[in-house]
Amino acid sequence: MRLLTKDLNDHVGEDVRVEGWLHKKRLLGGLTFINLRDRGGIVQAVIKDKSEVDKLKGLHIGTVLALEGKVVSESRAPGGIELHDTKIEIMVPVTQEPPVEIDKPLSHRPENLDTLFEHRSIGLRNVSEAKVFLVRSVLLKLIRQFLYDHDFVEIQTPKLVANAAEGGAEVFKLDYFGKQASLAQSPQLYKQVMVGVFERVFEIGPAFRAEPSATTRHVSEVTMLDIEMAFIKDHDDVLNMVQDLLYYVLTKVWEQQADTLRELKAPELVLKTPFPRYSMQNIHELYGEANKKDMSGEIDLTPDEERWICEYAKEHDGCEAVFATDLPKSKMKFYHMSKDDNSARSADLLFRGLELATVPQREHRYDVLTEQMKGSGISSDDPAYKFYLEAFKHGLPPHGGCGFGVDRLVEKTIGLGNIKEAILFPRDINRLTP
Amino acid sequence: MRLLTKDLNDHVGEDVRVEGWLHKKRLLGGLTFINLRDRGGIVQAVIKDKSEVDKLKGLHIGTVLALEGKVVSESRAPGGIELHDTKIEIMVPVTQEPPVEIDKPLSHRPENLDTLFEHRSIGLRNVSEAKVFLVRSVLLKLIRQFLYDHDFVEIQTPKLVANAAEGGAEVFKLDYFGKQASLAQSPQLYKQVMVGVFERVFEIGPAFRAEPSATTRHVSEVTMLDIEMAFIKDHDDVLNMVQDLLYYVLTKVWEQQADTLRELKAPELVLKTPFPRYSMQNIHELYGEANKKDMSGEIDLTPDEERWICEYAKEHDGCEAVFATDLPKSKMKFYHMSKDDNSARSADLLFRGLELATVPQREHRYDVLTEQMKGSGISSDDPAYKFYLEAFKHGLPPHGGCGFGVDRLVEKTIGLGNIKEAILFPRDINRLTP
Fold first, then answer.
1. What is the pLDDT along chain A (434 residues), one digit of tens a residue?
2. B chain contacts of residue A62, beta-carbon cutoff 8 Å
3. What average pLDDT values come out for chain B (434 residues) when binned by 10 residues?
4. For a Cys staple, B43 with which of A14, B5, B49, B105, CB 3.0–4.6 Å?
5. Which one of B120, B141, B389, B433 would you mutate to disrupt binding with A, by most A Cβ within 10 Å of its Cβ?
6. Which fold does the domain A127-153+187-422 belong to in CATH?
7. Interface predicted TM-score (ipTM) of this complex, two decimals
């Protein structure tokens, strides 16, 4: 029976069988040492018999093997054990060298990102590379756990839509049985409608943006966590929920995966609740003063301000996550609620220099909403918005939520340099495969 | 402070505040009775004061309200309690009647499905209708729980792809920065590549089919559960895993949600492991005999055979889930493994008359795979398949898995008549909104 390498410590002295991939092979003092990788990790095996060594002739990394041998304590071996008297069974032979190195820590990978993505199927077999996506799957599990615990219902909304929620040019269009359809940029309209049913809903799914930019921040397909909650007293209720979610997820992932995160050289977490909250205006002033710059012409935060305020808050407030509040009204979406003449009831959640989410209260009053739609150039008679407005006409309570970038969260949790490194098979303006 | 209606039983004799939607209003013996709906359920309130009753004048179902009153035991009220001496605060007034009835059980809804979907935002406020999607979210949670417990890693693969896994006409195409892209029909190629990394992976996400049919079975956007597992001994390993998953999910949902399922008139579960397994040929013979029909010309199972074999197995084997094994080789996909000259190592999982999943072993041998691709008219030099074949060239162990229809599972668990009733906002050839 097959055992996993991670369980071999419980079988010292026993004869066992493991199955996995040839991960490394070397000759040392007349002995052949091989590393075998399976989903549990890596084990080292010592091969003495020439007839066994011969079985590996002409075979390369990636060859699928079964090994039978005795588990022996060996402090110099990875994991403290190794296999002796090893017999080899070749399950799937590989007769070519791998196109990329798969036995280096992340920080030592020699290839540039393009080479890496070109051979992604193989590069991910690097144990460190794979751990990025183990952390990702743990983060997603923790997100769901928090939301279940807070009475949120999971929903799936359509990605083929008649209209993009926010309009704009960055929408993929396609032919839908003779009609024009768009790929959803977000579940915005649908999730708002659904608070009329469940009060609290969430969705984790793909969102599509025809971003014509090639940067470390832009991809055309992202994984979004969308949250929406009703019967809020005020905007603070929403900020607190999103804050508590991020705090839970990050502290738990460090509880459960500290070794993995340190192996990936993830920065240690500096976080506490409540997250510091600075108004946009306040950030412009603080940053301007500290950097001797005149920020009075700026509306949005510049990327450098986003980076700076997180550093500032880390130092002054002991927290790397910050809410930039009172976002400018001039940049407000039609479905946000305004606060006063200049600002919206909306805040950006920044973490380690990057915006993870925009967290607004929604405009739930039918008359004000249709007025704001008009201001955005959308007619309230547009049939694509009929289902949306109907929900407001028949009663939606005060509500708010956010679209939260899952890929960005993974990137910043681990401290990767590029959002694409947090995505298995990223899509950008130049890349549609693999 | 707001309480949820479901928690009021713990507050008999106390003055409480609830917030929710006006769900029903009637006059009885000079008193006004209203039902208030929140995410916890429904509570009945008695309004005596004329000044309070007057606040509701001209207001309709859907009006968002806060009620303050005393919780009183009352065996005739839903849930055994009601609110007395109720004061009303109007939070969001609604001045029009709802476009669809929302106070009927599912089986009594008067509207046809088209009307229902036209006003989906409001129709879902029907408490029974909403419970379909509560059950759906519980099913998804249970699926993930089983897969986490069996060492599967959650992945997200791109929906924008250069090629559809299976080719064919039923693919949505779109312009991708000047190149042609397709919407993924399934994560097939990606999940197979990923077993080379994690051995066991799963994804729950949308899949797109440009189905030009308008039936109770066809929609153009579905939610698929994709599973893939490596280092299997044989095809049975895969069948057993999928069987155990379905058994776990269905028995648990009945443990956790029996009341809800009975309220929705879901058929009682008749299930046991191992699920009966009948070869395709065997089903043709059994069905032909029982129904005095000549099935010798049939390759696939007919819909009536799918229905019949599930009934047969329920009666003879005490199990409503059946594997139809040894699917015909002539219908095999290039990435399936053949069994002999006539059949593939593939089985359909049928449940209550509907195919939930096709469960094959994959062809993992590079040479055989490229041969089979050629047979399907796909060149192994096609750049869109490069990443896929590279994974095999560098060693993929024996593996298998399935694409499992989540919408179909919801449909059949509850006993709905149409897949669209299991989807919040279904998409078909005629429907792109809401």
1. 999 999 999 999 999 999 999 999 998 878 899 999 999 999 999 999 999 999 999 999 999 999 999 999 999 888 899 999 999 999 999 999 999 888 877 766 666 788 888 999 999 999 999 999 999 999 999 999 999 999 999 999 999 998 755 656 689 999 999 999 999 999 999 999 999 999 999 999 999 999 887 777 789 999 999 999 999 999 999 999 999 999 999 999 999 999 999 999 999 999 999 999 999 999 999 999 999 999 988 889 999 999 999 999 999 999 999 999 999 999 899 999 999 989 999 999 999 999 999 999 999 999 999 999 999 999 989 888 999 999 999 999 999 999 999 999 999 999 998 999 999 999 988 888 88
2. 394-395
3. 96 98 90 95 95 94 98 92 97 95 74 84 94 98 98 97 71 93 95 98 96 81 98 98 98 97 96 97 96 90 96 98 96 94 96 97 97 92 92 98 97 94 92 82
4. B5
5. B433
6. BirA Bifunctional Protein; domain 2 (3.30.930)
7. 0.96
Pairing type for strands B31-38 and B15-28 reads antiparallel
Q: Hey, what CATH topology would domain A2-92 get?
A: OB fold (Dihydrolipoamide Acetyltransferase, E2P) (2.40.50)
Closest chain B C-alpha to A29 CA, distance in angstroms: 29
Smallest CA–CA distance, residue A352 to chain B, in Å, is: 24
**Can you tell me the distance from the alpha carbon of B390 to that of B388, in angstroms, rounded to the nearest whole number?**
5
B122/A390 Cβ within 8 A:
yes
Does the distance separating the beta carbons of B398 and A425 come in below 8 Å?
no
Tokens for A396?
């939606």
* Residue B377 distance to chain A (closest CA, Å): 20
- In angstroms, rounded to a whole number, what is the distance separating the alpha carbons of residues A194 and A200? 8
Q: Answer yes or no: do B130 and A197 touch at CB < 8 A.
A: yes
Helix or strand run (H / E) with residue A195: helix A188-198
Per-position DSSP letters for A340-405, written without gaps between them: SSSBBSEEEEEETTEEEEEEEBB---HHHHHHHHHHTT--TT-GGGHHHHHHHHT---SEEEEEEE
B350: closest CA among B259, B426, B246, B420? B246
Which residue in A122, A157, A177 is closest to B425 by CB distance? A157
Contact A430, A226 (CB under 8 A): no
Nearest to B121 among A62, A96, A193 (CB): A193
Beta-strand runs (E) in B117-263? 153-154, 160-161, 173-176, 179-183, 200-208, 221-230
For the record, the structure tokens of A367 come out as: 């008359």
Tokens matching residue A187: 């579940």
Residues 6+ apart with CB under 8 A from B183: A174, A183, B159, B160, B161, B171, B172, B174, B208
A162–B433: do the CB atoms touch at under 8 Å? yes
Nearest residue of A to residue B97 by CA position?
Answer: A394
CATH architecture of B127-422: 2-Layer Sandwich (3.30)
* Contact state of B432 with A205 under an 8 Å Cβ cutoff: no
The minimal CB distance from B394 to the residues A122, A221, A429 is found for A122
Cβ distance A156 to B38 less than 8 Å, yes or no, reads no
Q: Locate B48 and state its tokens.
A: 């005596």
Q: Map tokens 């950097």 to a residue.
A: A291
Tell me the per-residue pLDDT of B68-126, one tens digit each, with 9 for 90 and over: 999 999 998 888 999 999 999 999 999 999 998 888 777 666 667 888 889 999 999 99
Domain ranges (residues) in chain A: 2-92, 127-153+187-422
Structural Rg of chain B based on CA atoms:
26
